[in-house]
Amino acid sequence: MRNSTKSYTSFLYKNSNIDDCFIVEELTDEQIMLQKTARKFVEKEIIPVLPQIEQKNFEETKKAMLKAGELGLIGADIAEEDGGLELGKVSAAVIAEEMARARSFSITFGGQTGIGALPIAYFGNKEQKKRYLPKLLTGEHIAAYALTEPSAGTDALSIKTTATLSSCGKYYILNGEKQWITNSGFADIFIVYAKVDGKHFTAFIVEKDSEGLSTGPEEHKMGLDGSSTRSVILDNVHVPVENVIGEIGRGHIIAFNVLNFGRHKIALSSLGSAKRAIELAIEYGNTRHQFNKPLTSFPLIREKIANMIVQATAVESVVYRTAGELDCAFFENHDSLAKLIAKFAIHCSINKVLATEAVDKIVDEALQIHGGYGYMREYEIETLYRDVRINRIFEGTNEINRILIANTVMKEYEEEVNEPLSNNSYEMEFEKLSLVRSLLNQYIVAARQQNLTNMNEEQELAAVIADTVIAIYAMDSLLARVQKLKGMESNNGVELAAKIYIHETAQILGLKGLNIMNYLKNERVISSIATRLIDCNSMNIVDLKRKIASLTIK
To answer: Under a CB-based contact definition with an 8 Å cutoff, are residues 97 and 109 in contact?
Structure first.
């Protein structure tokens, strides 16, 4: 029997119970109303002032945050006892996706609702929550998350910022520099990580008016022009001892668990940006005529649109499934909050890698459909192209997230035969999923036999394992979704997307298997599975893509 940690990764071994998989079509009336509220907020309050915000007029940003607070958008998934609405992770997901339409303002908003407020909401004591959360949730105060340093990015535990207890015992004296801190130009409080006595990694709440705290000039970034990004300098900053969050030396528990939620929210924001890019591409393609026909009538443009829809559908299926799983886990939680969040670390990394790489492809193709116009600053797609690129770097690069996924699976995976096919309606798709699970099993068996289990060193193998795990979760989520939607009119596009995604992803994974098998010294078995993944198809993919493009364009 698996322990509770592994129960959250049962998708690696067997087809999920569809009743346990939340799908976006199951949004409640309340959640749909919240979705409309968030979209209306963006359209009415943000889009009209976005030009000023992107010119660094942060007074408009602060006004908008107050309005978001008034609507309850900031505290949607914070506990009622702490001043939030306690609407759950699915509701928070809806807001995060819709807020992506606000472009760089969404970074300010996400920094507030995620890594800014959550350290206090989830790990702060009663006095800290009472003092700081009310104004954060109303938008009256803005939070910034200060972890990254010039010499410590992905390797967060190597920070140089120090905290020394004062002789009177009432303060910690912080010294150091933080780099690329979102919201720092107008933040009221900073969640700062420092090492007590140069050794014990610890989280602190630091107020903006603290003597010795200053910020550098705004960074000149590739994108996200409307977000504030500065260095934060700490020069003998006295922080009251009561502003330590959690325990001395346990700051990594806060940092890494909060980053997990940050990764999920980045995935949701990426989904929102992807959907917006698809809208822009189709709107432009329908109105732009070449050779007396709209661009959307040309087969290669339609193929691009189909590919965009397939990727977005896979991401949507995954991020909302994870949101639903988080909701259930929070409701049923009997562990400490830190233990609960840690169990979903792999899911959040999967979400982040899948969504951020999908949105890059989608926005790139949307710009291509715009042709030369897409390269011009006055077109929204140009801004999106620059804005979304940071997502693969935010909250841990995709490379480090792949290693995290692979390390987790390598440590916890139990070698066993995965579940046989169980649904005749999608027999071919379930067969491919079963083969992919078998491929993952062979990777891990071979790696253990060859003593290649340190994923920090075996990074090429880690990437292949992580991509296989991501694909399994996506395939499993898509199949659960199409089964739930069976018989519904809305199923058509999702079913087509699922078939295409599973077929093409299986082929990609098969090729990866052929490329890694010699290194693992497991040529015969891996070659057999990989070849079947590449060859196993009787579908007319061209026709399927034409159908999904036609449905979308209509």
So the answer is: no
Q: 144-249: which CATH topology?
A: Butyryl-CoA Dehydrogenase, subunit A; domain 2 (2.40.110)
**Each residue's pLDDT tens digit, 102-155:** 999 999 999 999 889 999 999 999 999 999 999 999 999 999 999 999 987 777
Task: Look at the pTM and tell me if it is higher than 0.70.
Answer: yes
Provide the residue count of the chain. Answer: 554
Strand residue runs (E) in 373-466: none
Report the candidate in 392, 359, 107, 394 with the shortest Cα–Cα distance to residue 226: 107
Mean pLDDT of 482-511: 90
Distance in angstroms (rounded) separating the CA atoms of residues 125 and 113? 18
Beta-bridge partner residues of 289: 294
53-76 b/e (C-beta count within 10 Å ≥ 16 → b): bbeeebebbbebbeebbebbbbbb
Domain boundaries in the chain?
20-142, 144-249, 252-401, 422-553
Token pair listed for 327: 């909701």
Superfamily for domain range 252-401: Butyryl-CoA Dehydrogenase, subunit A, domain 3 (1.20.140.10)
Q: Residue 416: pLDDT band by 50, 70, 90 thresholds?
A: low
Q: Which of 380, 395, 429, 458 is catalytic?
A: 395
AA identity, residue 411: K
The Cβ of residue 349 has, within 10 Å, a number of other Cβ atoms equal to 29
Is residue 395 flagged as an active site residue? yes
In angstroms, rounded to a whole number, what is the distance separating the alpha carbons of residues 46 and 58?
12
CB 499 within 8 A of CB 478: no
User: What pLDDT, on the 0 to 100 scale, is given for residue 340?
Assistant: 84
Strand partners, 232: 178, 215
**In the structure, what pLDDT confidence band is assigned to residue 538 with cuts at 50, 70 and 90?**
confident
Pick the CATH number of 422-553 from 3.40.50.620, 1.20.140.10, 1.20.210.10, 3.40.50.1220: 1.20.140.10
Q: What is the CATH number of domain 20-142?
A: 1.10.540.10
Contacts of 318 (CB under 8 A, 6+ apart): 267, 350, 351, 354, 355, 473, 474, 477
Write out pLDDT tens, residues 327-381: 998 877 766 777 888 889 999 999 999 999 999 999 999 999 999 999 999 999 9
Is-same-fold flag (252-401; 422-553)? yes
Q: How far is CA 267 from the centre of its chain?
A: 3
Amino acid at 449: Q
